[in-house]
Automatic annotation (TrEMBL):
Function according to Swiss-Prot or TrEMBL: Modulates RecA activity.
Residue span, RecX first three-helical domain: 10-49
Spans traversing the lipid bilayer: none
HAMAP family: RecX
Protein name: Regulatory protein RecX
Localization per Swiss-Prot or TrEMBL: Cytoplasm
Entry GO CC: cytoplasm
Organism: Photobacterium marinum
GO BP: any one term: regulation of DNA repair
Sequence ranges assigned to domain RecX second three-helical in this UniProt record: 56-96
Keyword line: Cytoplasm
Residues making up the signal peptide according to the UniProt record: none
Gene for this chain: recX
Length: 153
């Protein structure tokens, strides 16, 4: 059974999506295809939006970077989020290089906000904190720095 033809054009639908929030090109493509538009109509709508600079993967990646940092995420988690949204690897790499964030200090700030100055007195507590920081997207060196964990884990 074929889907009923959408009532508005692919361009109108694309503009509607972009008026609510920024999207990655791939993400917008999937949404429009799911609504039943032909691949050609979707491609034309995306090109139209790019011509007017309403759809820009680099701008979207920069916004994801800012939001991720505000949420207390590390570089690994932010990079993963960008890939999940369909941003091309070169744009992801360029955005990560252009950022001026000290990931070690970001990790320390997140750890301080979460755990305060409480002691890491048991191996179980240390493991819990390491897992939390890994989930947030920090690498091992950043976690060690943030938790002042000099001994071997």
């Amino acid at each position: 059974m074929r889907k009923q033809a959408p009532k508005q054009s692919a361009k109108e639908a694309a503009i509607g999506y972009l008026s609510r929030r920024d999207h990655a090109e791939k993400e917008l493509f999937k949404k429009l295809k799911a609504r039943g538009y032909s691949e050609q109509d979707v491609s034309e709508a995306i090109a139209f939006c790019q011509d007017y600079n309403w759809l820009d993967d680099a701008r979207f990646a920069a916004m994801l970077m800012r939001n991720g940092v505000a949420k207390g995420w590390g570089a690994l988690r932010i990079r993963q989020e960008m890939k999940m949204k369909g941003i091309h690897d070169t744009v992801v790499s360029q955005t990560m290089e252009e950022t001026e964030i000290d990931w070690f200090e970001q990790a320390r700030a997140v750890a301080l906000r979460k755990f305060g100055n409480s002691e890491m007195d048991t191996p179980k507590e240390k493991a819990r904190r390491f897992r939390f920081m890994q989930y947030r997207g920090f690498d091992f060196e950043q976690i060690k720095y943030a938790l002042n964990a000099e001994d071997e884990y």
